[in-house]
Write a structure and sequence with these properties.
- α1 runs parallel beside α3, α1 packs parallel to α7 and α11 packs across α12.
- Helices cover 38% and strands 25% of the residues.
- The chain has 387 residues and is an alpha/beta fold.
- It has 3 domains: 170 residues, FAD/NAD(P)-binding domain (3-Layer(bba) Sandwich), CATH 3.50.50.60; 88 residues, D-Amino Acid Oxidase, subunit A, domain 2 (D-Amino Acid Oxidase, Chain A, domain 2, 2-Layer Sandwich); 56 residues.
- The protein has an 8-stranded mixed beta sheet with strand order 3-5-4-12-13-14-11-15.
C-alpha cells in the first residue's frame, strides 16, 4: 500500500519508519523538517516507557533529577524525581527519527503541501508535483492542513495558546514549573543540552492576551536567571503555537480517522489536558496506527485510539481535575501542602511523570486526604513556615 504522511515530526517520522519496515511504500512530506520547537523538549518517563529505545538514539540529552514547583504566591518546592526526566533538542530528535525512516525505506520530500483532495485514494499537491496515495496520514499538528481538510478546525475551547523562547544559558539551571492564580495552564523552564534552555507558557480557557502571557514568562526567566547568578539575555520574538487541549466531549466523540485516512499526534488531539504532555502520545498514536494498518488496513485505529485515551487523558475525570486544579483556591492550597506532605509530593511526581492515571486519581486522592491533613498540620506546628 502507498501511504502518504504529511508532517515529519515525532509522530510522522516514527510512523514512516514502522510502515516502511512493514513493506509499505511510504511518502513523507514536510517543508520545514527537521525543525526546532523552542518551548518544548521535555521527555517524561512515560515517553521513555512508550519508546524504550529513545535513550539509545544518537542525540544529546540532559538528565533532570529535580523539578522546582512554584505556586501562585511564589512558594517554591523542590522535588527529587525517582525516575529521571530528559530534555532534548527537538530538531535533533526529529532529525534522528527522519534518518531512521529513510534508512527503513521511506521517501522524504522537503515540500510544502498546498492541497489535499480525495480521488482514487488521495491526491497530495505541492507547488510543482502531485502524488497519489492509497492511505493518507495527517501528522502536521493541531492546526495543519490535513486536519483542516479532512475534519475541519478545532473548536476554540479545544485549543490552548503557547508562547516560548529558546535562550542561551551559561550555567546550570533547574527545571521549573510555575503556576498562576488566574491562569489555566503554567509556565516552564527546561534546561537543554548545549548551554541552552527552553521556556514556555501555555494557557487555555482564559482571557489573558499574548502580551501579558509573554511578560509573565519573561519575568519568570529573569527571576530564575538572576537568582542563579546568570545574566539575562535579550529576548527575541517569542515562538507561538496553538496546541490541543481537548474537552471531555471532544475526547468522547473524536474524528481521528475515516476511509483511508487517519490523524496522529497533535493532529489527533492526543495531548494531556492537565499537564500538556504530548511526546509520549506522538509515539503511541504512531504505533497504534502502524498496528492497525498491519492488521486491517487501519480500520481499527479509531477504536485503538479511543481505548488509549479512555482511562487516561480522555477520561472524564481528567477534565474535572483540570477545572478543579487550576481553581485559584485549590492552587494556593496545593502549593501549601506540596511543601509539607510527602503523599502530595509523591502524587505530583507520578502525575507530571505520566505514571498516574486519571481513571484512579480520585480514589487515590480521597484515600490520601486524612494523611495529607495530618502531615500538613504537624509540619505547621513543628516548623516555621518559609516566607
Amino acid at each position: 500500500m502507498r501511504v502518504g504522511i504529511v508532517g515529519a515530526g515525532i509522530a510522522g517520522a516514527s510512523l514512516a519508519e514502522k510502515l516502511a519496515r512493514l513493506g509499505h511504500e511510504v511518502l513523507l512530506l514536510d517543508h520545514r523538517a527537521p525543525w526546532e520547537k523552542p518551548c518544548g523538549g521535555g521527555v517524561t518517563p512515560r515517553a521513555l516507557d512508550d519508546y524504550p529505545g529513545l535513550l539509545e538514539l544518537p542525540l544529546s540529552r540532559r538528565e533532570i533529577r529535580e523539578v522546582v514547583f512554584i505556586g501562585p504566591t511564589g512558594r517554591r518546592t523542590v522535588l527529587a524525581m525517582p525516575r529521571a526526566w530528559h530534555t532534548v533538542s527537538r530538531r535533533e530528535l526529529a532529525q534522528v527519527l527522519l534518518e531512521r525512516a529513510e534508512a527503513a525505506g521511506a521517501t522524504f520530500l522537503r515540500r510544502r503541501v498546498q492541497r489535499i483532495s480525495e480521488s482514487s485514494g488521495f491526491q497530495i499537491e505541492t507547488a510543482a508535483e502531485n502524488f497519489r496515495v492509497d492511505f493518507l496520514v495527517g501528522a502536521d499538528g493541531a492546526t495543519g492542513l490535513t486536519r483542516r481538510t479532512l475534519v475541519g478546525k478545532w473548536n476554540r475551547d479545544d485549543l490552548c495558546r503557547c508562547y516560548g523562547f529558546l535562550l542561551p544559558c551559561p550555567g546550570d539551571l533547574r527545571l521549573v514549573i510555575r503556576f498562576y492564580s488566574d491562569l489555566m495552564g503554567y509556565a516552564w523552564l527546561f534546561p537543554r543540552p548545549g548551554q541552552l534552555f527552553s521556556a514556555g507558557i501555555a494557557a487555555s480557557g482564559n482571557n489573558l492576551g499574548r502580551d501579558e502571557l509573554v511578560r509573565r514568562l519573561c519575568r519568570l526567566i529573569e527571576a530564575e536567571l538572576i537568582s542563579s547568578g546568570h545574566p539575562v539575555p535579550s529576548f527575541p520574538k517569542p515562538y507561538a503555537a496553538l496546541l490541543p487541549s481537548l474537552s471531555a466531549a471532544s475526547f468522547a466523540s473524536p474524528r481521528v480517522a475515516g476511509r483511508n485516512w487517519a490523524l496522529v499526534g497533535d493532529a489527533s488531539g492526543a495531548v494531556d489536558p492537565v499537564t500538556g504532555e504530548g511526546i509520549s502520545y506522538a509515539f503511541k498514536t504512531a504505533r497504534l496506527l502502524a498496528e492497525a494498518i498491519a492488521e486491517d488496513q487501519g480500520r481499527s485505529y479509531p477504536e485503538r485510539w479511543q481505548d488509549m485515551v479512555r482511562t487516561g487523558i480522555g477520561h472524564a475525570g481528567a477534565h474535572r481535575w483540570r477545572e478543579r486544579f487550576y481553581d485559584p483556591k485549590v492552587l494556593w492550597l496545593y502549593s501549601l501542602v506540596l511543601q509539607r506532605s510527602g503523599l502530595v509530593q509523591e502524587l505530583t511526581r507520578d502525575l507530571f511523570s505520566g505514571r498516574q492515571s486519571y481513571h484512579d486519581l480520585k480514589p487515590r486522592v480521597l484515600h490520601a486526604i486524612p494523611q495529607v491533613l495530618l502531615e500538613t498540620l504537624l509540619s505547621l506546628f513543628t516548623h516555621r513556615a518559609p516566607p
